[in-house]
Amino acid sequence: MRMTDLIVKKRDGESLSKKEIRFIIKGYVQGDIPDYQMSAWAMAVYFRGMSLEETAELTLAMANSGDQLDLSTIGGRFVDKHSTGGVGDKATLLIGPMVAACGVPVAKMSGRGLGHTGGTIDKLSSIPGFRVELTQEEFLTQVKKIGLSVIAQTGNLVPADKKLYALRDVTGTVSSIPLIASSVMSKKIAAGAQGIVLDVKYGSGAFMKTVEDARILARTMVDIGKALGRQTIAVLSNMNQPLGRAVGNSLEVLEVADALQGKGPDDLMKVCLELGAWMLVAGDSVPNVGAGKKCLLHSIESGAAWNKFLAFITEQGGDAQAVIDRSLKVTPWNLPILAHQSGYVQPFDAQKVGILAMTLGAGRTTKDSPIDLGTGVLLVKKAGEWVEAGEPLLQLYGSDKEKLAEGLLLAKDLVSVGNEAPELPSLIEEVIQ
């Protein structure tokens, strides 16, 4: 079997066999297939696509390319949640304690962000002392003890995806639906998930800009899950506006703390209740979504979710008191953006908010770029809300005066105010099972 022949086969629109796909992934991970051949194959997939059978086999081959996590020793049914990413998306930090408080264990591996703001691991790193890297034994022991742990992805989990994604990133093949779907699903399967809930976002602040593209991606991942024997549910959610009011690492952790104590923004709570309820359904904890939402709301009202969050921080070495006291590091360099007139805040571009946050220091442009965890944007007023002239619309938190000045230029015309209240789209577009 020769890689050149397989590139030509896919280039000409033919389907690859299971044996051929396994040969490609194994050869690439072992270094027998060079980057230039894998790049040509990825471009052929980009233009020719893959069948469901091919995509499922690619997913399985990548999942089997390295370590796999065995969660069976803990007991219970494990459900993982994945978001395709967005601006202000701190949902994992809110959903995890709520779902765990409702009796479904959450054992999650997450990544660091590349782009507008940090990922879940970056956000957790803003808590003093918090350990994002645990041994597998420590990870499983903590889940047994309190039902919740979130750690950085281990070094040898799905190495095929690490290599292939880095290659796609520099060869213009990132947006291939089969390659996106297999990338996401291979990590969930290798991490031991029996049920998978996907938050597939669309809009200006999301990777998929249209609901049509998001629906195709969601359907592909759900079909892969079904083909591989994993219950998979996809929720299409709107990311034309940032989720919640905080965009930035420490700022988002503080917003999660408020939400777990019953003071969360309506949009953040709606999306998290939807996703969390489906996780409870997939975890066989509740009979339907309505019952799931009731359980999640009760976990907040009773204080169970908040206490679970504090226990989670403490177990992983973090300073829970710093979260309670709201003493997480937030840069002293901050600046309000004021409304020039009274009226209703009009919808603004989520992607531009993300770029603003990254400019202030909250995100990274390369995988090795540093992040200032105390920077970001606070959306004092969101679309549809009334603001008086002279009141703040945004609060900018920059890592230094120069970045704050640069952020001010970007924020100057970001938010507009009008006389009419805007019609806001639904946050949840569709659920695909």
UniProtKB/TrEMBL annotation:
GO molecular function: 1,4-alpha-oligoglucan phosphorylase activity; thymidine phosphorylase activity
GO cellular component terms, semicolon-separated: cytosol
Keywords (A to Z) from UniProt: Glycosyltransferase, Transferase
Reaction(s) this enzyme catalyzes, per UniProt: uridine + phosphate = alpha-D-ribose 1-phosphate + uracil; 2'-deoxyuridine + phosphate = 2-deoxy-alpha-D-ribose 1-phosphate + uracil; thymidine + phosphate = 2-deoxy-alpha-D-ribose 1-phosphate + thymine
EC number: 2.4.2.2
Domain Pyrimidine nucleoside phosphorylase C-terminal: 344-418
GO biological process, one term: pyrimidine nucleobase metabolic process
Span of the signal peptide: none
SMART domains, alphabetized: PYNP_C
InterPro entries in alphabetical order: Glycosyl_Trfase_fam3, Glycosyl_Trfase_fam3_N_dom, Glycosyl_Trfase_fam3_N_dom_sf, Nuc_phospho_transferase, PYNP-like_C_sf, PYNP_C, Pyrmidine_PPas_bac/euk, Pyrmidine_PPase_CS
Assembly mode: Homodimer.
Role: Catalyzes phosphorolysis of the pyrimidine nucleosides uridine, thymidine and 2'-deoxyuridine with the formation of the corresponding pyrimidine base and ribose-1-phosphate.
Family label: Belongs to the thymidine/pyrimidine-nucleoside phosphorylase family.
Name listed for the protein in its UniProt record: Pyrimidine-nucleoside phosphorylase
Source species taxonomy: Bacteria, Bacillati, Bacillota, Clostridia, Eubacteriales
